[in-house]
Amino acid sequence: METSIVQKLEVCAFSVIILLSTLTTPEAALQKSQQRNVSEIEARIQRVENGLLPPSILKGEAVSGMKLPERMQFYKTPAVSIAVINEGRTEWARAYGTLEVGGKEPATINTTFQAASLSKPIAAMAALRLVQQGKLDLDTDVNAVLKSWRIPENEFNRTEKVTLRRILSHTAGLTVQGFLGYATDAPVPSVRAILDGVSPANSPPIRVDTVPGTRFRYSGGGYVVLQQLLTDTTGQQFPDVMNQLVLKRLGMDHSSFQHPLSGMAAGHLPNGQEIQGGYFRYPELAAAGLWTTPTDLARFVIEIQNSLHGKSQRVLTPAMMSQMLTPQTENSGLGIFVDGTGLSLRFSFSGSNVGFKSYLVGYFDSGQGAVVMTNSENGAQLILEILRSIAAEYHWPDYRPRERSIASVDPSVYDAYLGEYEVAPGLILSVTKEGDKLFSQSPGQPRSEMFPESETTFFLKDIDAQFTFVRENGQIVRVTIRRGTREFQARKIK
Asked: Strands (DSSP E) along 354-485, which ranges?
């Protein structure tokens, strides 16, 4: 009987050993690790979704994060798509909302958005690959290469020439900052018509009106010249050039410089109304014509990081990538902007077509970054709130709220500021007072309290906006409005 008990114990012990060995196999350990990682990443996503941050916080005030769905509603933005890069890979991607206001089809990570000016760094990378292949030169007069059209010569470019380096860095002296797009039922001009500003083009001729190489001036027009340069150099249509040189090489399979047949988000105006036809067309492809996803653009960001550090040469060598990321003047590299120093050193670019706003950023050394795309004219401010949340969660050195202090101002001073200010034709800002508080309100937007930093300068907490009232001959005549890096003058009309 004792022998039987001993045998049973031995069998049980053996079974336990077998079970333990099964649970501790490398495969089981990997599976547990993966499950733990998924759980940790999901927790990070939820913190990002519920931790959107304003541009400003009051000194000493506790910061509470805002929820993404509520901010999407506030900004009348039907869809947002996000890709977050960490440790040199896309850690997660997620889409929110619907393709159109009031629609039922949900946005997914494969939903394409108009990238707008994010087309420029993609086109710049293609041009630099041709330089790398010896088919283009950064410092040669582009008129020596252009075949079907040339930049007219005048007193500005008679000595100093328009070069590829200057086009990519916005120092070529070329006109036309951006483009309005064309309704889906309107005629679309050829590239030649856009370059010369002839019907049906809705933009002026692209010409040199500043000596090339003398100063930075953002020029979408320069990238239309680049578009012509790439087609003349390769003898191929521009979308085919981009597919061959960049998109396919990086696995950007949901990206195209041709209009997608399905699965794209519709653009929306500031009041939340969908654009008639869903979007505007942009034949200025190199400047504004890319349809893509944040996941695909994250591949582009990661390729820049990897190429810079010699980990990839799918498009550019480390030496050529270093040139791309070297500022030529101010913070303008070759097709991309570079900011910061040390751990803060980063490249970035923003996109703004009618009804679509987007942004990408990548850090040089940490393998971190993000891409956010929206289908709303109001999306730029929402993108910044999302980036601040990502920055807080992933401990980025930048994109943090600015701490501000409220000045002590006699509320009676506010009386002179009350009234209406014309920001643009048909766009009126109203400034009102309630008790001892000052408020501003734009058409279609809720009223926002204005907090004084001084007797004449005020800021908003929830929107990146600063207002400075300007007095002439004892009267308030206008208000200077600063939104991010943009500045507007609004004259007092009432």
From this structure: 356-363, 369-374, 402-404, 419-424, 427-434, 437-441, 448-452, 457-459, 466-472, 475-483
